[in-house]
Amino acid sequence: MNAPLSPTAARVDADGSGISVEHVTVTYRNGHTALRDATFRIPTGTITALVGVNGSGKSTLFKTIMGFLGASRGTVSLLGLSVAEALKRNVVAYVPQAEEVDWTFPVLVEDVVMMGRYGHMSFLRIPRQADHAAVEAALGRVNMLEFRKRQIGELSGGQRKRVFLARALAQNARVILLDEPFTGVDVKTEDAIIALLKALRDEGRVMLVSTHNLGSVPEFCDRTVLIKGTVLAYGLTSEIFTQANLEQAFGGVLRHFVLDESHAATPGTLGVLTDDERPLVLYKDRPAASGTAGSSEGIG
Ligand SMILES: Nc1ncnc2c1ncn2[C@@H]1O[C@H](COP(=O)(O)OP(=O)(O)OP(=O)(O)O)[C@@H](O)[C@H]1O
């Protein structure tokens, strides 16, 4: 059943200094194996897209990296540490999908962000000046300071995402996992989140971002992991985002528009792939918008 890694994956550098997943298999209690022999490596100082259809194993992978689920085979390491050690040292944070959070729970925005500091506190969890300062700085960075006294349930979808990102920043996480950060977010907020992620990348952090917005991946993700029950391919987005790879990952789910190219200078060079919101434009079988995130190559 295991699809072979694409030749691209074999050529990519093997630096797993950020996230390293080696031959990981995860089986749920009911016997369902959601991930089989998954392998990829991501250096620090990068933003990597995690791309796959519904049910392909993205959340399973996140939960495994966060230590919520155990792998029956294989190993995960974060910044060279085991998952248990990474959790102990507070280096990894998870920004959840909106559906995973109980928004009726009465808690203030600043309290949610303070949760990111728990691992830095003694077991009594009494915040010190440094903790308050970290919360303030994190809220400032996501432009949410004025909402600090609001109940979390009284925020818009985009504001909620920013609060959970602030929690990861207050924690000073070096590895940040983001589950569908752009769902229900307007274009302006999406741009603001992307700008922030790029700044975090340039600080040497590593981010793994699951998204269905294929069109925005080449804009801000220097690397991509394609997943479908296993890792189909991983490496530089500019090399991974080919029509053949995407069709393997998405099967019939992906819509492929063939434009009328009869008037184009070089017919056969332009294609548009989409699964929902943002279409991906391929020019000569490569992302048309690629290159903006590639500047991070060599960082870390
Ligand atoms: N608790 C569970 N017990 C058994 N099987 C599960 C459980 N959670 C998920 N699965 C199955 O594992 C597979 C992968 O699910 P997962 O949630 O990781 O997919 P996903 O890529 O995150 O999907 P989506 O894009 O819809 O969020 C699916 O077939 C799903 O039905």
Write the layout of secondary structure elements.
Blueprint: H1 7-11, E1 19-27, E2 33-42, E3 46-51, H2 58-65, E4 73-78, E5 81-82, H3 83-88, E6 92-95, H4 109-115, H5 129-141, H6 157-171, E7 175-179, H7 187-202, E8 206-210, H8 217-220, E9 223-227, E10 231-236, H9 237-240, H10 243-250, E11 255-257, E12 270-274, E13 280-283, E14 286-287
Parallel strand pairs: 3-8, 3-9, 6-7, 7-8
Antiparallel strand pairs: 1-2, 1-4, 4-5, 9-10, 11-12, 12-13, 13-14
Adenosine-5'-triphosphate binds next to helix 2.
Overview of the structural elements:
Pfam families: ABC_tran. Residues 19-253 form the ABC transporter domain. A six-stranded mixed beta sheet has the order 6-7-8-3-9-10, sandwiched between helices. Strands 2-1-4-5 form a four-stranded antiparallel beta sheet. The chain has a four-stranded antiparallel beta sheet with strand order 11-12-13-14. It has helices at residues 7-11, 58-65, 83-88, 109-115, 129-141, 157-171, 187-202, 217-220, 237-240, 243-250, and strands at residues 19-27, 33-42, 46-51, 73-78, 81-82, 92-95, 175-179, 206-210, 223-227, 231-236, 255-257, 270-274, 280-283, 286-287. Helix 4 (109-115) packs parallel to helix 6 and helix 5 (129-141) packs across helix 6. It has a domain at 7-91 and 174-296: P-loop containing nucleotide triphosphate hydrolases (Rossmann fold, 3-Layer(aba) Sandwich), CATH 3.40.50. The protein has 300 residues and is α/β, with parallel strands linked by helices. The chain binds adenosine-5'-triphosphate. Adenosine-5'-triphosphate binds next to helix 2.
